[in-house]
Each structure stands twice: as structure tokens, then as C-alpha cells.
Description:
By secondary structure, the protein is of the alpha+beta class.
Amino acid sequence: MTSAKDPAPGPAATALRELLGLLHQGAPVERFTGLAQQVRAAGAGPAEQALVEEAAQVALDIRRTLDQHRRREAELTALFDTAGDLAALRDLDAVLRAIVHRARMLLGTDVAYLTLNDPAAGDTFMRVTDGSVSAAFQQLRLGMGEGLGGLVAQTARPYASADYRTDGRFRHTPAIDQGVQEEGLRGILGVPLRVGTRVIGVLYAADRAVRDFAPDAVALLSSLADHAAVAIDSARLLEETRAALVELGVANETARARSEALRLAAETHDRLTRLVLRGGDVGDVAREVAVLLGGALVVHDADGAELARVVPGTAQSDGTAEPAGAAVPAGPPGTAPAEALAASRAGGRAVAVDGVWVCAVLAGPELLGSLTLGGRADLSESERRLFERAGLVTALLLLLRRSIAHAEDRVRGELLGDLLAAPVPGRVRDTGSQTLRARKLGVDLGRPHVLVVLHCDAALRSRLAAEAARHARARDGLAGLFQGRVVLLAPADSPGALARALAADLGQALGAPVTAGSAGPAAGPEELPGVHAEALRCLEALHALGHTGHGAGLPDLGFLGVLLGDRADVGAYVDRVLGPVLEYDARRGTELVRTLEAYFAEGASLARTKDALHVHVNTVVQRLDRIGQILGADWNTPAGALEVQLALRILRAGPAARPGEPFRSQH
């Protein structure tokens, strides 16, 4: 506050004081230059005017220096912030977006963006933008040397253009010009992103108005570009480190898994080896493998017959739950999926089809059977190898079983040959030792036995012998080659039924006709040579009658069987042919047998038959119809009529009939 005695300050002093205030306020440049005019208007002298103008110029210099310091401080702050971002690098995209945004803010441009080089494509592509509004611009790709950015990427030098649209220094392309025009850019500055001597991309700052970029703007953008290059290279190294750690983890996990697989394989090998050495069979192996793999396992042989089935938790007959992995009796024959078995056989590995795993059991190229695993949609590599190892052990057991079976079949064949050999004159057959040998093989010769002679194409005889041996073992019998033919001996009461069953089953197994002639049953070993001779004659009769591929016993051949048999039972023959009619007469008091005798005696003439019987012709017709209902429609065919007439003759001449009385059936 001035006193009354102090003189009032002059215009110059007032102007100087105001200059200091403008500096403090950071006022616009126009305010500084306007003070000199105010001093002149206030009537200041030339000296004062010169003083004020000089002071205004100094104030402007001070103001510019302060602005530079502030700008430099902001730039340093931005660089420090960027360095901090790099130190805490987590997300490369976030760091690059921050760098591009800071470039735009510090340089005061409308747009900032960053492109990265693509060595594979030989160009550079847009990675991050800030302030951009054009989708086409944001998806630009620049070839090396194309446009401003392509030239920067190619030469590794910064370039600036005050007005890119009219700048002829750069190679313009329609795609780049269209993107730049759609974004509305004029002034563009681009600096390279360098990692060592290698250029990896370009950082840009651009305005939508014509602009000359000063050297300090180029330096600032270059500093930010260096930070961006460091961020990108650090991210690359970090990603490589992470990938290496992941690979190391995978390698460790793979090593651990392989170690576990080796341990499991060794343990499985030891368990299965001990099992085989203890005399375990296919069912025991199936039980072990089912427990290890946690699924249901079924074992089939090469023909599809089920050898063993292991179903965890199967219910027993008493209603209790069977322990997991318990072996249960084999079920009905079944086969693994054909396509899966074929694939496993071809590739030598287990395969999965529709959630079922199948492993072919092989001995070289020979298929011995298959393993089928259910309840496990997926198997690890170690579990798959375990399943395949079970196939190898099963193959070993099946080969061993086959070798034992072959040896046993030879022993059975030798015994069968001794039983069927014709007795040597003057030498007593040692049936006692034969019976003892048979008992050791599980064959009881004290039971009635039927003998079947089998015939097929010569090329299939060895297969027929093997199949016959399998059937014989299943029936507690014997089978083998005797006098060049396959022979089977089994406990049975009906020769015809056994022969028919064998002809059908063996024919299906071989895929070719099998003829079976049978005879018996034999009451003891001493009767077997004669029974064999009868079965052989039955087989020859089947071929002579054109019945190849069928099975029959001598009784099934009618009167021909009676003629061929050494022990013809004529009573049984009459009973088989006429028994139903004899029973009908006995039960109803009718005269059907007498009508038959008269019918054939009169040459099958209805008129003469009714005269011989003293009945009406309709009565004869009705009786013959009744006979047809009892004996079947073919009774009056030539073959059927022959059988009936022969049975009538035996009936009247046989020892079981008294003169003048009909034969009475045993039924």
C-alpha cells in the first residue's frame, strides 16, 4: 500500500508487475505482446516503452522455457509409467494399448497406432490403434516398402509427412490410400520398433490436419517405440519361458506316466506269469485282467465259442452279489464285433468299436480267439498295452491247451483204435485194461455207447477229425481216425439222433457236407468191432441212397437197415412201421391191420378189397384215410408201401405172433 507521500507508479512499472503476474498464471502469448501497446497508450516515453518491450520478450522466453520443462516432465512421466508397465508386464496387449495412447496424448495427435511385421507373409499388419474410427483402416496390411509405414518397416528409419495424401515420396497403393482417406489422416509420423538390429514393427502418430512434426516429436515417439519393442520382446521371451515350462511339465508328466506304465506293466507281467506257472487257465487270466482294468471281459475261441466270462458284480443263484472280478461260467457262444476283430488282427493292437474294446488273440498270423472288454469306453495307453499283454498270455494258454488236447486226442485215438480192431483169432481181448485206460480219460465204457462213422471231402478230413475230437471231449467220448475214416464214440441211446446232430453241427463248422452213419448202442467194449462194421455199412448205404450230408442210424434206413444189420431186431422194425396202427386197433377194437393186409393182397383195388372184407367200399376208403392219418401221407408211396408190406409179412411170420393172431406192439 503506497503512502500519500509516495509518487504513483508509472505505466512501465505497472506493466512490469503485470508481466510477472502473467508468468505466474501461464497466460497466453497474446497477453504478453499486448502490454507494450498498453504502455504506449498510457503515454509512456520511448525509454519506458523499450524497457517494457524488452521485459515482455524476456518473459516470453521464460514462458517458453517453462513450457518445455513441463512438456519434458510429462514426457519423462509417461516414459517412467511405460517402464513401470513393462516391469509388471502381464498382458502384452494392455501394455501396447497404453503406449499407443500415451503417444497420442503426448504428441497431441488425433490418432496413434502400431503395426507389427509378419515374416511369413512378408508384410506388416495393424496391431493396436487409439483414436481410430475406420474399420477398414484398423484392418490394413502394408507390404514392405508400401506407404509410409511400409517404408519405415523396410528401412528401419523414421519418416514424417506433413500431408501424406499429396506426398510423392512414398509408394501409394489403393488399399492404403483408401484406408488413410477413410480415417481422414493428413500429417503422419512413423518410427521403427527395433529389437537389436531387427525391425519388428512401426509406431505412428497422425493428425487429421496438415502438420509438420518437429524433431523433438520424432525423438519422443522413438523413445516410446523403443519401450514398445522392449515390451514385445519381453512378452515373447516370457511366452517362450512359459512354453518351455509347459513343455517341461508335460515332459515330467510323460516321464511319470511312462514310469507308472512300466511299473504297472512289470507288476502285471509278474502277476500273469505267476498265474500261468501255478497252472491257471483262461478264466483265471480273464479274472485278473478284468480286476486290473475294471471292466467286463469275455474270452472267445477262434470259432466264436465263449471260453470264459468275467462280469463284476454278477448275481449268484442264491441272490447274493458275486465279488467284483469273479469268474462265472461261460455263457452261450458269441463273437466279438467282426469289424473290430478284423482291425485288431490286421494291426496287431486292441481296437475300440462302439465303446467295446477287442483284442485278437494271435499266434503269428493264426487267429486263436479274441478278448472283448466292456464297460470301459476309454483306455489309457498303459491300460491298452495291459489288455494286449493279456491277449499274448491268453494265446500262450490256448496254444498250451491245444497241445495238451492234441496229445490227449492221440491217446484217445489210440484207445479207440484198440477198441474197434477186429479180434485176433486165438487171442483173448483184454477188455479190462481197455476199460481202465478209458476211465483215466473220463470215458465210462460200462454205459451204452453209439458209434458214428463220419465222411466229408478228403481235403477237410483233418479239420473234421479235430472238430470230432472236440465234440467227443464235450460228450465224454472218444474220436479219431480208424481205417482212414473219422470215427466218434459217445454215450447215447439213439444212434440216429446222435448221427443227425453230428452231421448238422460238423457240417456247419466245416462249411461243407458231412455224412454220418451210426450204429449201436454197444453194451460193452467187446461189441464195438461189430457196431463199427454196422455203422460203416450204414454210411455206405447213405451214400448209395443219395443222402450225402445227412446222418442216420440203421433203424432209420427201414427194411434196408434190417437187412444190413448184424443184430436185426425185426420186432422193433414192425413196431416202428406198424406200431401206431396196432395200438389203434388194440385200443379201439378196429380192423385197420386186417384192412391193410386185404388191400395189398388184392393189388390195392378198392373193389376187390371190399369184397374180401365183406364191407361197403366207403368203409374201405374211410379205413384207409384213418391209416393215412396215423402213419402219415406217404404210407402208400412205393417206398412206404414196401415198408408196410414187409412189416405185415414179418408180423404174420415172426416168432412173436401166434398163428391166426395179430402181432401186439410193445408200446
